[in-house]
Amino acid sequence: MAIFDLKSRVAFITGGNGGIGLGMAKGLAAAGATVVIAGRNKAKAQSALSELHVLGAQAEFVELDVLKEASCKQAIERAVERFGRLDILVNNAGTSVRKQPQDLTAQDWRLVMDTNLTSAFLCSQAAYPHMVRAGGGKIINIGSVMSVFASSYAAPYAASKGAIVQLARSMAVAWAKDNIQVNTILPGWIDTDLTRKAREQVEGLHDKVLARTPAQRWGAPGDFAGIAVFLAAAASDFVTGAAIPVDGGYSVQA
Length: 254
Description:
Helix content: 40-55%
Radius of gyration: 17 Å
């Protein structure tokens, strides 16, 4: 369907070399987009590129350190120089430090906030003029069910993911005049490297997640292919400032 066609579109995905980011990259590529995956781990990126190329995707890697403002700007510029435009930005890079609030250091706090939130602001700001030049664009922020819920061991993560929803809403209002739609996906408990570490560190987490999730399973990165295409395509041109759970029903079950 034309409203889901992403041919001639260029997508830039932070943390696109694995997990949810790679799941979205595969979806966008399947819809015809050229995909730029951005991150620090070159070996992991090459593996991700191999998976994308097997699918027939046009995909490249750009080195990016989301903790550095200059790197965020330079990575966006390199993608535009290579492909001539930027239509879709997915702010997916994320991390967590699992400690009780009283045990967190200022360094722990800054690491999580800068990785999850500040990088999304910097990359969005860098992408903005290119999207304006293209006549519009799509920005997809990755929040979390922790944008809504809380846990004792994830204060900076929850704070960053709550804030990224508000950041998306503010940008959605500011940039609607430029035909740029900004939305947030709220993943539930997804089977990724990040959550595997959580299951090792948080006793009983696996069983608690299954007990609360009506779908009775953990999510998979591939579950994000469809929502990524929808929010990146013309199908969502009148959707902006939304926060959409992709969680198997976790957030609606009492």
